[in-house]
Design brief:
- The chain is mainly alpha-helical.
- The protein has three domains: 50 residues; 99 residues, Tetratricopeptide repeat domain (Serine Threonine Protein Phosphatase 5, Tetratricopeptide repeat, Alpha Horseshoe); 49 residues, no CATH class.
- Helices cover 78% and strands 0% of the residues.
- The chain has twelve helices and no strands.
- α6 runs parallel beside α8 and α8 packs antiparallel against α9.
- The longest helix is centred in the N-terminal third of the chain and has 20 residues.
- It is elongated and about 85 Å long.
Length: 217
């Protein structure tokens, strides 16, 4: 729906133009003839600040255009005005961008902000957010915190089998480091049973499979 994307992209400027036109009509003909213009202007301007342009992210994300994603996110001037579910998405996406830039401290801070937002939309993202926080904790060498986050992610539910397999593999690695080999093997079997297709996860399974069968337990 290109027309909707165009409306979202230029919603603020269209709202301001309608507001100027409403003021002009108000001065020329009175308030009531200008009422519908005022109403449309308020809906567009308020919508820009409380809903934001996150719908526009779909195309650049599908195309792998990270600069386009950053540009859209930077167009949100006052994230504190966004409604909670949208604000949660905003902080999560900002956290993902920071993680891609290997700014792990900032990524962790932003993702935690996203988790703190709550809301219906947040529930569907909770597992993914906690999995990412777990991976961040692993990057920082905090295995205890990593295990806690990843277990919470599994309990919360993950959006697809690739994410679920990644979570099981991370727990498997943690269990091997703790020398809890039986648990490690159980999590490895769960990951493999999901038959993931993401090359990175498939390669990780192949690497672990080379030596996990030789472990006791």
């Amino acid at each position: 729906m290109k027309w909707l994307n165009l409306l979202i992209k230029y919603r603020l400027w269209l709202g301001l133009a309608l507001l100027a036109l409403a003021i002009f009509v108000n001065l020329q003909s009175g308030f009531w003839p200008a009422f519908i213009l005022y109403l449309l202007a308020v809906v567009l301007i308020v919508g820009h600040f409380i809903i934001g342009p996150l719908r526009l992210l779909q195309e650049p994300m599908e195309n792998g255009d990270m600069e386009g994603v950053k540009k859209i996110l930077s167009s949100i001037w006052f994230p504190g005005l966004l409604i909670k579910p949208v604000r949660s998405q905003y902080y999560t996406l900002k956290g993902n961008m920071a993680m891609a830039d290997q700014d792990f401290d900032t990524a962790e801070k932003l993702m935690k902000k996203g988790l703190d937002m709550g809301g219906t939309m947040m529930k569907s993202q909770e597992g993914s957010n906690k999995l990412q926080l777990g991976m961040l904790a692993m990057q920082k060498g905090d295995m205890k915190q990593a295990e806690a986050y990843i277990r919470q992610a599994i309990r919360s539910g993950l959006p697809d089998k690739e994410s679920e397999a990644a979570a099981y593999l991370q727990i498997c690695s943690i269990m091997m480091n703790k020398r809890e080999f039986r648990s490690a093997k159980d999590y490895f079997r769960k990951a493999k049973a999901l038959k993931p297709t993401t090359p990175q996860i498939v390669d990780q399974i192949k690497q672990i499979e080379k030596y996990i069968t030789r472990l006791p337990g």
